[in-house]
Amino acid sequence: MPVPDFSQNKKVLITGASGFIGSFLVEEGLLNGYRVYAGIRAGSKRIFLQDPSIRFFELDFSSPERLEKKLREFILAEGRFDYVIHNAGITRAGRKEDFHRVNYQYTKHLADALVATGSPPEKFIFISSLAAGGPGDPLRFTEINSSDPDHPISSYAKSKLDAEKYISSLPGLRPLIIRPTAVYGPRDRDFLNYFRILSKGIAPCMGSRRQILSFIYVKDLSRAVFKLLSSGRIHRSYLASDGNSYTNEDMLMLIWKIVDKPAIKIRVPLAPVRASVFFLEKLYSLFNRMPFLHCEKLEEITALNWSCNSSELWQDLGTAPKYSLEAGLYETARWYRENGWLV
Ligand SMILES: NC(=O)c1ccc[n+]([C@@H]2O[C@H](COP(=O)([O-])OP(=O)(O)OC[C@H]3O[C@@H](n4cnc5c(N)ncnc54)[C@H](OP(=O)(O)O)[C@@H]3O)[C@@H](O)[C@H]2O)c1
User: Fold this and answer.
1) Residue 124 in domain
2) Both ends of the chain: CA-CA distance in Å?
């Protein structure tokens, strides 16, 4: 396939390139003819970064000085990065303060360092999260809009919002924020758990109330990010979803259909889950740690309304998402099976 040349081989640095979303951003960048620099750390796995045209750029976000030095050296040798997509971040942590450190402080360090070089990129895209704005109205179930007041309900969400605020007010940086809803696709392990549980014969349903959710397939997200990169849009924030809303039941039934194995539906009441998570969190706190599922996380994932209005994004880009949840989940399952993640 011929490589589109609108990018004129511009340089894009993608942080968190080794992860699920990052590796797809890298592929999308290459597909669009960019010179892609995969921002990784020394110990990052490169399993999804096998294309020989990927250039690697090691980053240590913990030291603003080292970061600035590294960027200055690069600029001297190769010129500035035309674009930076800051995607590195954590969605789970061993300690609550890790969210603040990685998602807020490291974003601040990178943004500060880019500005300090005197040659900041043309655009700095920050991969935030729908969570940064908090869930939608649980009674009327109206969609979350980008203009709604923010009310994050977890340390993760707060750290993303703090980073958004910082980069939006930093003189010299030209930021654009994207808030994806739940992202799924090949290489993602969160959705894999649903597939695995269902293929073991259990269809779990948490709580008795209907939840309204939204999703985006990773390829649609990556396409949107690169369309935003080449657009004139700047200094604003977009919500990203596939444009539809689904109930938690819809999602479960779809995965069940794809797994195509007999399973029994097990409804897990929320009250005992809350109590166990609370107890576990207290226990872990004795060791200054946080369990994978903690109280805030539970409240976030069981919030009743995560439907969002992403029409601004797709209208401004003049395109539409290519994948419905069903199509995306089928492709995801195929990848899981082909790669031995799901039997
Ligand atoms: N997945 C979702 O549903 C979703 C939804 C909305 C927003 N997001 C955001 O999307 C971004 C990517 O998420 P993902 O799902 O792709 O997660 P992921 O697979 O865990 O990837 C995270 C990436 O961030 C890097 N990273 C983590 N901590 C770092 C640190 N201290 N220093 C440098 N790099 C670090 C990781 O590098 P290593 O490989 O070296 O660990 C990895 O490349 C995150 O910012 C997340 O908040 C995700």
Assistant:
1) yes
2) 33
Considering only the C-alpha atoms of the chain, give the largest distance between any 2 of them, rounded to a whole number of Å: 61
pTM: 0.95
Distance of CA 131 to the CA centre of its chain: 10
Cβ neighbours of residue 309 under 8 Å, at least 6 residues apart? Answer: 143, 144, 145, 146, 239
Q: Are 94 and 290 in contact (CB under 8 A)?
A: yes
Q: In the structure, which protein residues have their CB atom closer than 6 angstroms to any atom of ligand 1?
A: 16, 18-22, 41, 44-45, 61, 87-91, 102, 127, 129, 180, 182-183
The total domain count for the chain is 1
* pLDDT one-digit tens code per residue, 310-325: 999 999 999 999 999 9
Q: How confident is the model at residue 5 (pLDDT cuts 50, 70, 90)?
A: low
Is the model's pLDDT at 3 over the cut of 70?
no
**Mutate-to-test residue for ligand 1 from 28, 67, 90, 292, highest number of ligand atoms within 8 A of CB:** 90
**What are the strands, taking DSSP E only, across the chain?**
11-15, 35-40, 55-58, 83-86, 123-127, 175-180, 182-184, 202-206, 212-213, 215-217, 237-240, 246-247, 264-268
The domain that contains 183 carries what CATH number?
A: 3.40.50.720
Which structural domain, as residue segments, surrounds residue 124? 11-188+215-243+306-323
For 207, other C-beta atoms within 10 Å of its C-beta total: 16
* Vertex 220 angle, CA 228 and 52, to 5°: 85
